[in-house]
């Protein structure tokens, strides 16, 4: 009679960075994994994330610590191959509107107080700290955080999926809306929109802004504060930008292929959601965002949008991540957070550890879904 323990079978719902990262970490730990995506991989928030790797500004201490650990995991990945054009560490630069110099100084003072690398710069000091920025766009002062970076998540997902397939993971695309099946009060597997079922010892729900809707039938209420957002990718343009920019009218980061990725929130009122769940925005609004971004770049190059994607940006109702096992349904785990990019690698690592061992990680203690019960 064999004493070899049976392999744990885990079903992961969601083909974004949190689902894919957790799936790969589970496979590394010896689990059998089936990953199901409603449509394709990186087809929702992961495919339209500014994906700025940071823990700038003020937030709860546990959240800050988790984000710093998240950036650390990306640094490890970066060190293995610094030439990847989809993961770079060129720092982050932010500034406020004119008349808010004191608020910028207060943010800098706070970041310094917690040991976060923060430099308060006058406009004329910016070119010496980082390249490709028009200092005339900065009204009074700015904060440069040299330890920050960015990742293009679709390329990261492709990179991780190579390992997923090499380790024997099973992938089901276009599964439609997948639900969690329960037997005896415990998660027992998943069911696709077509009625196909898959048994599992544990289930992870990592469906971005749809996560609360997926767990609601289980009697679990997770407040959802997800707004509509847009990511614009420009046509290729010569620029020397290395840092991620977070400014009053545009957020900008470098992107593979000498393009730029653009984001903000002022245009949300111009986005229309249609009855079929699709979204639209006037072309002139997209161009206005590109024009605002152009003002930030050295030489003010003409920026032309090549593509834009619109959808819900995952944000839990209280702003804090929701990570861990559901108390009402043992064996069912969730991953729902605004900072999916920054936490993508670390959250997958810690959740996989909890799923495989049953031991709760202390860094996730304040992020449990049970706080809403």
TrEMBL record:
<protein>
    <submittedName>
        <fullName>FAD-dependent oxidoreductase</fullName>
    </submittedName>
</protein>
<keyword id="KW-0560">Oxidoreductase</keyword>
<feature type="domain" description="FAD dependent oxidoreductase">
    <location>
        <begin position="9"/>
        <end position="352"/>
    </location>
</feature>
<dbReference type="InterPro" id="IPR036188">
    <property type="entry name" value="FAD/NAD-bd_sf"/>
</dbReference>
<dbReference type="Pfam" id="PF01266">
    <property type="entry name" value="DAO"/>
</dbReference>
<dbReference type="InterPro" id="IPR006076">
    <property type="entry name" value="FAD-dep_OxRdtase"/>
</dbReference>
